[in-house]
Each structure stands twice: as structure tokens, then as C-alpha cells.
Write a structure and sequence with these properties.
The protein has 2 domains: 144 residues, Rossmann fold, CATH 3.40.50; 108 residues, Rossmann fold (3-Layer(aba) Sandwich), CATH 3.40.50. By secondary structure, it is of the alpha/beta class. The strands form 2 sheets. Strands 4-3-1-2-9-10 form a 6-stranded parallel β-sheet, sandwiched between helices. Strands 6-5-7-8 form a 4-stranded parallel β-sheet, with helices on both faces. About 2% of the residues have low confidence. The chain is 42% helix and 16% strand. The protein is built from 12 helices and 10 strands. The longest helix has 17 residues. Bound molecules: D-glutamic acid.
Length: 265
């Protein structure tokens, strides 16, 4: 059995592309629809009810696209909205935190750090999900204010960026964590900056594990397509699609990034 319906994937902006790139490199012969909710960016400072409402509208949008599954390439909405909405749709929904937690719980370490948006960190989602598999691991979640804006606005080399990166990273390093999860899909873009303070191997990007797990599950559920060639992904942005088109080109290595339309959610 196969299924040629699209796979939806969303985030507030550029962050989810770190997941999308992994998925596309493992399996390009699927119809992917990427939705960047630039209208509501940033998610990380919003309340749980607001995030549930935003997420349900995006899932409704994907329902109109007749998707076979939706990838929540966003830690914040995985933490705030997935549990509430997961049974409301007849397609599979893959949340990033819940999908990768088991893998991280198996790390042979005692102290794990998580850099995340304020909404993710304050929800305690990583601690809770990892404790389901390994209650003995100590998990420290650090709310990183404004890191998403560094990535979205390419402010990597500013003094302000340096200051806020140091503030939150040092707070975790002081706790003597052995590994650090990049618990927001925007943060892998900061890896070069982060690794000037600690070894690169210390930082864990959930995206490759997440993509692998999604494809394993789609295979087990017999939901993969039978397309024999690569498909061109479709991109949508909820505000300023031209801006997203320009900035996403910088992160996605496609010869062609097209079809970014404004759509109402
Ligand atoms: N990239 C998202 C995440 O993983 C959301 C970031 C934001 O918009 O605050 O949490």
C-alpha cells in the first residue's frame, strides 16, 4: 500500500527548515508542503491558549490540502498544543519533542541541558518526556529570550546577540550539563556561535533523529508514496512571502524554491 498525498510541515518561520532539509535529504520523492507562520512569529513568547489556536488553524489548513501527515517542526507548539489537538484530525501528527525524547533519554549521561524558547522551557516538556523513559536523568531547560529573532533577522554578529547567547548558554554550562539539546528548530543555525564556547559535539540537533523516526513510522504505516522521482516542495508563508522566499533560499539548497503564496490562517 502507498499514499501519494502530501506531507505537511510547519513552524513559525525558518526554524522548521532544519527538519525539512533532513526529511528531504532522506526522502525527496514525497510531496512536501511547508508552512511558515511568519504572521505569528515568534511563537516562544505566546501563551498556551494562543498557541493551541494558532496550531489548530494550521492543522485545518493542512486538512484542506488533504495531507496524509503533519510534521510539527516546532518545539513550542509540540509542547503547548500537540496533546490538546492530536485526536482532532484523521491524519498522523508528528511532534518533535515527543518523537525524539526516547532517543535522548538513552544518552549515557546524568545531566542534560536544553536550550529552548520561553514557552517550551517553561512548559517542562523535555523534562517530562525524557522522564517517561529515564527518570534518573537530570534535565535543565533554559528559556532563551530573543534567540529566534537573531536567526530570523540575521543578527548573528551583533553585540546584543553575543550578550544574550552568552547569558543563556553560560547559565546552562554553570550547571555542568554534559550535552545540550537545541530545543528550538531555529537554534541549529546558531551552532557556529555556540561552539565558540563549548565543543560542537556537546550540542544535539534533534532534526536528524526526528526525520529518521518520521520516515520509519510512515514506512511501518505503509504511508510512503510510490513516486519514483524527486518532488518540488511547496512553500507557504502567512505574511510577507517574498521575505520568506529570500531568507529560506539562504538555508535551503534547492535549485528552485517556488510557490510561496500568502494564505490566510
Ligand atoms: N522554531 C520554533 C521552535 O522550535 C518556534 C520558535 C518561535 O517562533 O519562537 O520552538
Amino acid at each position: 500500500m502507498t499514499d501519494n498525498s502530501p506531507i505537511g510541515i510547519f513552524d513559525s518561520g525558518l526554524g522548521g527548515l532544519t527538519v525539512f532539509r533532513e526529511l528531504y535529504s532522506l526522502r525527496a520523492n514525497e510531496n512536501y508542503i511547508y508552512f511558515a507562520d511568519t504572521l505569528n512569529l515568534p511563537y516562544g513568547t505566546k501563551s498556551k491558549p494562543a498557541l493551541i489556536q494558532i496550531t489548530s488553524k494550521i492543522l485545518d489548513f493542512f486538512e484542506t490540502k488533504k495531507v496524509k501527515s503533519v510534521v510539527i517542526a516546532c518545539n513550542t507548539t509540540s509542547a503547548a498544543a500537540y496533546e490538546t489537538l492530536k485526536d482532532n484530525y484523521n491524519f498522523k501528527i508528528y511532534p518533535i519533542i515527543q518523537t525524539v525524547a526516547k532517543e535522548f533519554s538513552l544518552l549515557p549521561i546524568k545531566k542534560l541541558g536544553v536550550l529552548a524558547t520561553p514557552a517550551t522551557a517553561n512548559s517542562g516538556a523535555y523534562l517530562r518526556e525524557i522522564a517517561r523513559y529515564n527518570p534518573n536523568m537530570e534535565v535543565f531547560e533554559e528559556p532563551c529570550f530573543d534567540w529566534v529573532q537573531i536567526v530570523e533577522n540575521s543578527l548573528y554578529d551583533t553585540d546584543e546577540a553575543k550578550k544574550i547567547i552568552e547569558e543563556h548558554l553560560f547559565s546552562l554550562l554553570d550547571k555542568k550539563v554534559e550535552k545540550i539539546i537545541l530545543g528550538c528548530t531555529h537554534y541549529p543555525y546558531l551552532l557556529d556561535k555556540l561552539s565558540s564556547y563549548a565543543p560542537k559535539e556537546m550540542f544535539l540537533n534533534p532534526a536528524p533523529i526526528f526525520a529518521k523516526k518520521i520516515l520509519e513510522d510512515l514506512t511501518a504505516e505503509r504511508l510512503l508514496s510510490d513516486f519514483e522521482t524527486e518532488k518540488t516542495p511547496e512553500f507557504y508563508a502567512s505574511s510577507n512571502p517574498e521575505n520568506f522566499k529570500t531568507s529560506s533560499k539562504f538555508f535551503c539548497e534547492f535549485k528552485e524554491v517556488k510557490g510561496i503564496n500568502s494564505t490566510l490562517v
